[in-house]
Design goal:
Helix 3 packs across helix 6. The chain is globular, with a radius of gyration of 16 Å. 33% of the residues are buried. It has 196 residues and is α+β, with helices and mostly antiparallel strands. A five-stranded mixed sheet has the order 1-2-4-3-10, sandwiched between helices. A three-stranded antiparallel sheet has the order 5-7-8, with no helix packed on it. The chain is built from six helices and ten strands; from the N terminus they run ααββαβββαβαβββαβ.
């Protein structure tokens, strides 16, 4: 039996929260770099266990899209019985000042600090069926833009993770459960990292 989505992410996020040095590094990076509307958006910050951690400071994702992305991850995770390759970390920084300072999304660093190359489209994989079930495939060819290919030099393809969900539109037949999850993840403390 697969581990429930909320339990899995709560467990991993708790490990990050308990690592005071890593949390301070994440917040220091956010305060120095600030939210951005141009590259670079993403900054490696360290590891928790075997998971490389990074900070996404793209303004739109950090401020507006977080609960929507987690809701979409939950739908994909549940429908694939946990087999779909999703970011193993996805938490919002809890801004202690109530402003945009110290905002950002903490996620799994798919590039492993730059050791792997991340291509902007996928070479294929079983994720297409799951994306097609939940999301509208618009003329901009949004499905390939949602999945990436991670390559280790000399070793070929390592992963085909589905990581860029903020621009995918949920089909009408799934709107009810999607909106329910969005409401939950707007305030769910298990998906927040606090300054320590």
């Amino acid at each position: 039996m697969i581990e429930a989505f909320d339990s899995k992410y709560a467990r991993i996020h708790a490990e990050i929260q308990e690592n005071a040095d890593l949390v301070r590094r994440i917040y220091d990076t956010a305060l120095v770099e600030g939210l951005k509307n141009e590259q670079p958006f993403y900054f490696p910050c360290g590891r928790v266990g075997d998971i490389p951690i990074g900070l996404d400071l793209k303004f739109s994702r950090s401020c507006f899209c977080f609960p929507e992305v987690v809701a979409k991850m939950r739908m994909l995770y549940d429908s694939s019985d946990g087999e779909l390759d999703l970011s193993r970390v996805y938490a919002r920084m809890a801004d202690p000042k109530g402003s945009l300072e110290g905002c950002g999304i903490v996620s799994e660093d798919m590039s492993c600090g730059g050791a792997f190359r991340v291509w902007g489209d996928s070479m294929g994989g079983k994720h297409w069926d799951f994306l097609g079930e939940f999301f509208i495939n618009d003329p901009s060819d949004s499905f390939p833009a949602a999945a990436f290919t991670v390559i280790k030099e000399g070793a070929g393809m390592v992963r085909t993770p589905v990581v860029d969900l903020d621009h995918l539109e949920v089909k009408p037949k799934h709107q009810s459960i999607y909106e329910k999850y969005c409401g939950q993840y707007e305030t769910d403390e298990r998906f927040m990292i606090h300054l320590v």
